[in-house]
Sequence to fold (66 residues):
Amino acid sequence: MTRRIREVRARLLVAAVAEDGMSTAEYAIGTIAAAAFGAVLYSVVTGDSIVTALTDIIAKALDTAV
Fold:
């Protein structure tokens, strides 16, 4: 009986520390975070102040005095 309890305990211990499937969950969370960051970045870049600032920078860069 003691041997059987040790076997069950060993199996439970292995099951408790096993990380099968963790990489899939981590990839899913990383993908969601990247998509959220992309959405925030897109909304910032397409805002009026950023578009105006980038347009001014490009206009100044292309305006060359000969």
